[in-house]
């Protein structure tokens, strides 16, 4: 009933949202004398804040039309190169005949399946496009996947990563942002154990919970303090009609978003208060920056219940990979098998999702990667989001990743 009640609440307030939008248009009309009244900017600001707080946000677009490389503007074409029931592999094809750019390394960015769309990594993709041929996992909203497509769990996630690496080909570089760190390391370890020709040349793990016992954060502690049954009974529900995924068991995106926002509730309240003030005084640039951030942040997707519960159990409660106990379809995963793939870990000093040391733990697990092919970097002054987006990502972190990829061009 939880999901159904949420849908009913949205439907119930839709007339109010329509009235707010209509009211804004009327008050903004220069032919309306009231539009010049001193109180009108405050009323318009209130209307917009309230309407934005109660709307449903659709999946955003990447909107990456071009990139600059060596002074040359290169057009970008987004293309879907492979489709799976729960994910599509997206390629940002650079339209160029420049031999240097055509020889650039291939990079698979594995986006988190944690409630937000892959477009949350727009800034990540944008920073890598000048020197890499970029692909990304564009995960689908579980509420749109028909029940006939079957379940999707952590094992399936690992299978998808392996399949995409095989499709892209040998010496692809892989980057895992946050949650995918564990399944990506599992996939690379499984490929290494087979000496697969498509095992990646390098693996970059960013803000990933490889060992959530280290510097535990609020989400880590919550996962440890409550039994798995609590998560299943309180956070898992069925997709209601008329969604295509009707009756699929999911962890709804709106619940995930609620949890994220409550972790920094005062910050979000201040942001909306400042947004109102900027609208009243006509600070259009600041108001637009707020819109762009929250258009992305408030756009969420559902996760399959089996993937969510298995991730909570294996990654945050049992720490299976960190303890050497992770299984993939009954097969023991051994990170020590990884020898040919270079390893880079990136953490944020103030990360409140994956604490300091959780990603660094990958170095101890991958004990057979030569020291010359390992690198760890902690970015000062950033939280979780700043590890893969924002000013310091562009100026400090991304250049180091690009250099690491250049330094380790092949899996050897």
In short:
The chain is of the alpha/beta class. It is 42% helix and 17% strand.
Characterise this structure.
The chain is an alpha/beta fold and 412 residues long. The chain folds into two domains: 1-56; 66-220 and 303-407, Alpha/Beta hydrolase fold, catalytic domain (Rossmann fold). Helix content is 42%, strand content 17%. The strands form three sheets. It has a nine-stranded mixed sheet, sandwiched between helices. It has a three-stranded antiparallel sheet with strand order 8-9-10. The chain has a two-stranded antiparallel ribbon with strand order 11-12. Helix 6 (181-193) links the parallel strand 6 and strand 7. Helix 2 runs antiparallel to helix 10 (265-281), helix 5 (154-168) packs across helix 6 and helix 10 (265-281) runs antiparallel to helix 11 (284-297). The chain is globular, with a radius of gyration of 23 Å. The model has no long low-confidence stretch (mean pLDDT 93).
Average pLDDT for all residues? 93
Content of β-strand: 15-25%
What's the number of helices?
14
Give the helix proportion (percent range): 40-55%
Q: Tally the structural domains.
A: 2
| CATH homologous superfamily classification of the largest domain | Alpha/Beta hydrolase fold, catalytic domain
Largest sheet: 9 strands, mixed
Question: How would you describe the oligomerization state of the chains in this entry?
Answer: single chain
Spatial sequence of strands, sheet with the most strands: 1-2-3-5-4-6-7-13-14
Distance between the termini: 54 Å
Based on DSSP secondary structure assignment, what is the total number of beta strands? 14
Indicate the radius of gyration in whole angstroms.
Answer: 23 Å
């Amino acid at each position: 009933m939880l999901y159904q009640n949420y849908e009913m609440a949205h439907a119930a307030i839709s007339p109010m949202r329509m009235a707010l939008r209509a009211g804004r248009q009327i008050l903004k009309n220069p032919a309306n004398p009231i539009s010049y009244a001193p109180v009108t900017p405050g009323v318009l600001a209130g209307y917009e804040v309230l309407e934005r707080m109660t709307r449903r946000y659709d999946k955003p677009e990447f909107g990456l039309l071009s990139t600059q490389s060596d002074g040359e503007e290169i057009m970008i074409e987004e293309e879907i190169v492979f489709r799976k029931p729960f994910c599509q592999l997206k390629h940002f094809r650079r339209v160029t005949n420049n031999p240097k750019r055509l020889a650039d390394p291939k990079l698979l960015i594995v986006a988190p399946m944690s409630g937000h769309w892959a477009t949350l990594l727009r800034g990540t993709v944008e920073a890598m496009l000048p020197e890499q041929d970029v692909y990304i996992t564009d995960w689908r909203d579980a509420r749109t996947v028909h029940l006939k497509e079957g379940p999707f769990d952590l094992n399936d996630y690992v299978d998808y990563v392996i399949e995409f690496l095989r499709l892209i080909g040998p010496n692809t570089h892989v980057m895992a942002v946050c949650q995918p760190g564990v399944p990506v390391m599992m996939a690379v370890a499984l490929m290494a154990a087979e000496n697969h020709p498509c095992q990646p040349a390098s693996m970059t793990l960013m803000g990933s919970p490889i060992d959530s016992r280290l510097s535990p954060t609020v989400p880590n502690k919550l996962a440890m303090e409550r039994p798995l049954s609590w998560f299943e009974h309180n956070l898992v529900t069925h997709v209601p009609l008329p969604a295509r995924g009707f009756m699929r068991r999911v962890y709804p995106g709106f619940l995930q978003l609620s949890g994220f926002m409550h972790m920094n509730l005062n910050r979000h309240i201040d942001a909306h208060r400042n947004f109102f003030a900027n609208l009243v005084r006509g600070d259009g640039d600041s108001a637009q920056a707020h819109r762009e951030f929250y258009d992305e942040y408030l756009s969420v997707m559902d996760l399959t219940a089996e993937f969510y519960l298995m991730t909570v159990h294996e990654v945050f409660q049992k720490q299976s990979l960190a303890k050497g106990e992770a299984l993939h379809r009954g097969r023991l995963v051994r990170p020590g098998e990884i020898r040919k793939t270079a390893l880079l870990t990136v953490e944020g000093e103030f990360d409140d999702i994956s604490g300091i040391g959780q990603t660094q733990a990958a170095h101890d697990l991958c004990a057979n990667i030569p020291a010359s092919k390992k690198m760890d970097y902690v970015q000062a002054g950033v939280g979780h989001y700043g590890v893969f987006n924002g000013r310091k990502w562009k100026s400090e972190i991304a250049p180091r990743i690009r250099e690491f990829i250049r330094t380790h061009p092949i899996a050897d």
